[in-house]
Amino acid sequence: MAAGELFAFREWDDATWAPRAECRGLSEIFFPPAAERPQAREKREAHARQVCHSCPVMFECRDFARRHREYGFWGGESEEERHAAGFRLIAPIGVRARQIS
Ligand code: SF4
Questions:
Q1: Cα separation, 27 vs 73, whole angstroms
Q2: Residue with the nearest Cα to atom 4 of ligand 1?
């Protein structure tokens, strides 16, 4: 389920941007499947990044994901990139795989 699809199940009041999300129907590129290999992750995230960069709400989405410590690819940013930007996650996939703190 991509960012634009999650909000039907949540009641946060700061997600007015979600209906304009470009990622509706594209969940499989925004969240990893089980046991995804690094090369497959790079390819999937490159595709997600492309979608995000054409999305009219990229900055609102990125801010939301950072504040809520979301997992997956949001606002043109991977878990690893959010983590590196100071919005720490408990176990971001890229950081864990490469053992970066
Ligand atoms: S920036 Fe990316 S993840 Fe966020 S709503 Fe747009 S397409 Fe979806």
A1: 10
A2: 75
- The continuous run of DSSP H or E covering 28 comes out as helix 27-30
User: Using an 8 Å Cβ cutoff, are 20 and 73 in contact?
Assistant: no
The pLDDT assigned to 89 comes to: 78
Rg (CA), the chain: 13
Question: Rounded to the nearest whole angstrom, what is the distance from the C-alpha of residue 74 to the centroid of ligand 1?
Answer: 6
Angle at 77 between CA 14 and CA 36, to 5 degrees: 115
The per-residue pLDDT for 65 is 94
Q: Is the pTM of this model over 0.70?
A: yes
Distance between Cα 11 and ligand 1 center (Å): 18
Mutation test of ligand 1: which of 74, 79, 82 has the most ligand atoms closer than 8 Å to its C-beta?
Answer: 74
Q: Can you read off the two tokens belonging to residue 37?
A: 């290999």
